[in-house]
């Protein structure tokens, strides 16, 4: 059985589908992490809201917004047909990593600020960002418009 050589930079269809399967497993792990963070935030949140340090609250809010925007923009680049398939796989990886990072940020809000509702909201938004399956990667040359 002979294999046909792949075009340089495409990664090959079997390799790309293996990466897609790995991303699917990562997605499930991220969703499990976010569910765990949501449960912990729900159980321990709002137990006694303390006076929050405004600087800490602002820093965590900015971090959550930046991580959320990172997930949104990475998903956008992962779905662009003009981006080569291996790069689309990397953008998809970044999508799930950023979405998963919202869970620990939510836990930080819960434990450091005592705001369980906001921490739970961060985990829920992370789950919304991670719920879509990875895009299918094509091994062909990128299309130009």
Q: Short description, anyone?
A:
This protein has 145 residues and is an all-alpha fold.
Structure description:
The protein has one domain. It has helices at residues 13-44, 54-78, 85-113, 116-130. The two termini are 37 Å apart. Helix 1 runs antiparallel to helix 4 (116-130), helix 2 (54-78) packs parallel to helix 4 (116-130) and helix 3 runs antiparallel to helix 4. With 145 residues, it is mainly α. Helix content is 70%, strand content 0%.
Mind summarizing the main beta sheet? none
Radius of gyration: 19 Å
Query: How big a fraction of the residues is strand?
Result: under 5%
How many H/I helical runs?
4
Q: Which shape, going by the Cα principal axes?
A: elongated
Look at the structure and give the mean pLDDT: 82
Outline the low-pLDDT stretches. 1-9, 140-145
H/E element order? HHHH
**Class per helix and strand makeup:** mainly alpha
User: What's the number of domains?
Assistant: 1
Number of strands: 0
State the separation between the terminal residues, measured CA to CA.
37 Å
Helix coverage percent of residues? 55-70%
Helices and strands in order:
Layout (H helix, E strand, L loop, with lengths): L12 H32 L9 H25 L6 H29 L2 H15 L15
Helix pairs in contact: 1-3, 1-4, 2-3, 2-4, 3-4
